[in-house]
Amino acid sequence: MEEEKCLKYYWSKIILITGIAFILTACMYINRKSKEQHAKENGNEPYKALSVKYQDSIYRMVLRSNDIVLKMKYPDEFLRTLKDSGVLNIDSATFYELRKDIVTPQPLIDSIFKGNVDTLLSHFFDDNGFIAFELSYDEEKYLIDILYRNKILVNIACESGYLNMDYKNLKKQSLALGYEKNKQRNENNPNGFNRIPVQCIETGEIFNSMDAADKKYGGCVSSYLSGRIKYTGHLDDGTVLHWERI
Q: What is the pLDDT of residues 106-121, one digit of tens each?
């Protein structure tokens, strides 16, 4: 009788342990499949950059498909952080899983940037919007973060695997920043430099002022004509524009 009880006890333990192992394996499989599905569905999503707080320090992180880690663990807080440009508090497990995505200042990028986004774009990206230099992963993260802060989204081209810019977002950003800056400058100085007539080399269009050209295509024609950038403004198909005084 005692032997039968012992056998029942051991079998119940074995079944319990087997059941727990099965449940844990199933959970790990589901979690992995969720991440794979997320990566597949969001393969064309541009990079995101956000601030996270771990212990007493705040870090910048650049994420793409791996943002599923934050979406699953902090669904509401993550979206709110992106929307409000706030800071997301994360635990130690999340920090160590995403620590490779932390952004650190890079001397090469800073030496070109110097607070001028147009200079950064014209130096590091070619006329088709693709990265023109081979950068380290840390340099890429820092570049992406600076552009993200200036509302310029960067993605990875599916075929080549190179970084490239979102032209629609770039045009929107140019209109919001470049045009408004030039508009204010012209209001303060109505007879100033931006009243010089210019012509678009690609389209042949003539504008009675740089401000009018900036308003239609976005960008900063005065920066182009002064030699600070290689191009400014884009057509809807992504063609970059060049300009000349007339």
A: 999 999 888 888 888 8
Q: Under DSSP, is residue 241 helix (H, G, I), strand (E, B) or coil?
A: coil
Instruction: Retrieve residue 32's tokens.
Output: 């992995």
**Cα–Cα distance for residue pair 143/184, rounded to 1 Å:** 28
Question: Minimum mean pLDDT among 55-64, 110-119, 177-186, 236-245: which range?
Answer: 177-186
* CA–CA dist 152, 50 (Å, integer): 14
Whole-angstrom Cα distance, residue 157 to residue 165? 9
Distances (CA, A) of 106 to 137, 200, 217, 229: 11, 36, 32, 21
Return all residues near 103 (Cβ < 8 A) that are at least 6 apart. 49, 59, 60, 61, 62, 141, 142, 145
pTM confidence score? 0.56
- The C-alpha angle 18, 21, 22, rounded to 5 degrees, equals 85
Amino acid at 166: D
Q: Which of 245, 242, 246 is nearest to 122 (CA)?
A: 242
End-to-end CA distance of the chain: 107
Contact between 80 and 86 (Cβ < 8 Å): yes
